[in-house]
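Sequence design from tokenized structure. All designs in this work follow the same two-part layout: the structure record, then the generated sequence. An example of the structure record is given first.
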């Protein structure tokens, strides 16, 4: 039986390269790291920035990135250093509760702050999507586990197609690739990646329509 990659954690180390001889598993591990929610989330914020004109709204983007990404991810890293979670990808469902509560709170604050600042519709749509998805992930996680990796990848593909179109639609190819990596690493089932992708694409498409983007 093929050995799974061992993603070790330590109070002073966030993640290790998997110790395995399988090139396939190593490839899957790298794909899942590069396609992690914080990385793709940052890519989405930057995409919105370039679409709107980075120079005009850089302060809003920085503020939102801090609230939506930095604070929740920082909380997960703190939990990791405290030994309260096994890895920063939150592989174990039972370890996702408080990180998701933090994500919901940060997403709510981010959306409210941007609304008060009268942020551009596209940025508000992204913030609203993040809030709706955070609540949905939390409710599902009470009984099941959904792939947030797949959700964020699918959302990014929809966002890219909406604001840029053309070749950027190729981002949709990252969705099955990232889903494959999660399944190969046995972090999710195929069904969990499919549901995740459906959530990510659905909520972003709805938000874009509501905000008239």
């Amino acid at each position: 039986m093929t050995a799974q990659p061992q993603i070790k954690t330590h109070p002073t180390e966030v993640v290790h390269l998997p110790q395995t001889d399988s090139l396939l598993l190593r490839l899957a591990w790298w794909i899942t790291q590069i396609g992690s929610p914080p990385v793709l989330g940052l890519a989405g914020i930057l995409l919105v920035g370039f679409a709107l004109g980075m120079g005009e709204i850089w302060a809003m983007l920085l503020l939102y990135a801090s609230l939506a990404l930095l604070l929740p991810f920082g909380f997960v890293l703190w939990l990791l250093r405290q030994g309260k979670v096994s890895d920063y990808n939150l592989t174990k469902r039972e370890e996702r509760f408080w990180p998701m509560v933090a994500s919901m709170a940060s997403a709510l604050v981010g959306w409210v702050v941007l609304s008060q600042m009268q942020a551009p519709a596209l940025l508000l749509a992204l913030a609203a999507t993040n809030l709706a998805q955070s609540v949905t992930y939390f409710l599902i996680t009470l009984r099941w586990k959904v792939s947030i990796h797949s959700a964020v990848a699918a959302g990014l593909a929809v966002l890219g197609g909406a604001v840029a179109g053309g070749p950027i639609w190729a981002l949709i190819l990252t969705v099955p690739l990232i889903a494959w990596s999660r399944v190969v690493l046995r972090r999710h089932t195929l069904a969990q990646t499919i549901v995740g992708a459906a959530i990510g694409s659905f909520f972003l498409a709805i938000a874009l329509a509501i905000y008239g983007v």
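Residues 24-82+94-210 form one domain. We note this feature because it recurs in several other targets discussed in the main text.
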